[in-house]
Amino acid sequence: MLLRKWDDLPSNMKNASVKEYYDILCKKRFSLLLKRIFDIIFAILIFIVLSPIFIVLSIIIKIDSKGPIMFRQVRITQYGKPFRIYKFRTMVVNAEKLGSQVTTKNDVRVTRVGKFLRKYRLDEFPQLFNIITGDMSFVGTRPEVSKYVERYTEKMIATLLLPAGVTSEASIQYKDEELVLTLAEAANETYVKKVLPEKMKYNLRSIEAFSFLGDIRTMIRTVVVVVKKHDIKLNVDING
């Protein structure tokens, strides 16, 4: 995971705000290399171990509702490069034409199996392919669709210095994002004007404090948060 030379960056990334974060990352090239090596090896190992589960989930998704097993969508990653993100499909076919590109809690477009997959973030597993190809990393800013990237400020663009990620500190802090958007009158505008800027503060701070071990801690915390969230819900259901 090597940084391009400053002169080789896209023109829209060459501003003073991005340069500040670029200089920080330049001092951490060895950690970036470790990050990429870890991504490749760990992604391959997880895929091998979980391949039987992949097959089972694929069959269940196909039985549950009409449509493809995989959801593919163009997102933006490092240096503003468009790529196709892979997820297990959790919504009905053509869901994007039936509503917003952000998902709210109890979204009617989400299938029965989709609710389960999203609850435990199992829909993210196919992104192992995106990690192996280098379009994504285990930890990094969540990839957005182009219409949201176009709304980035000059400072937010600095997040494109690194590949998009499956999880991040922002993802942990905004684990209940769907609920927040559900309570908003206009989900899209609320996301762009309120949620996205706040998430970007975490993403930019993560670049400032980037370290390989820090990424490992974020991955562990993500697993703990997902499991803990389930345990809390289970206790409420039992005791409620």
Automatic annotation (TrEMBL):
**Carries keyword Transmembrane?**
yes
List the InterPro entries hit by this protein, alphabetically: Bact_transf (IPR003362)
Q: Which UniProt keywords apply?
A: Membrane, Transferase, Transmembrane, Transmembrane helix
Where does the chain cross the membrane?
A: 37-61
Pfam families the UniProt entry points to: Bac_transf (PF02397)
Ranges where the Bacterial sugar transferase domain occurs: 35-228
Top-level division of the source organism's lineage:
Bacteria
* A molecular-function term among this protein's GO annotations: phosphotransferase activity, for other substituted phosphate groups
Give the similarity note.
Belongs to the bacterial sugar transferase family.
* PANTHER family xref list: COLANIC BIOSYNTHESIS UDP-GLUCOSE LIPID CARRIER TRANSFERASE, UNDECAPRENYL-PHOSPHATE N-ACETYLGALACTOSAMINYL 1-PHOSPHATE TRANSFERASE-RELATED
The protein in question is named Glycosyl transferase
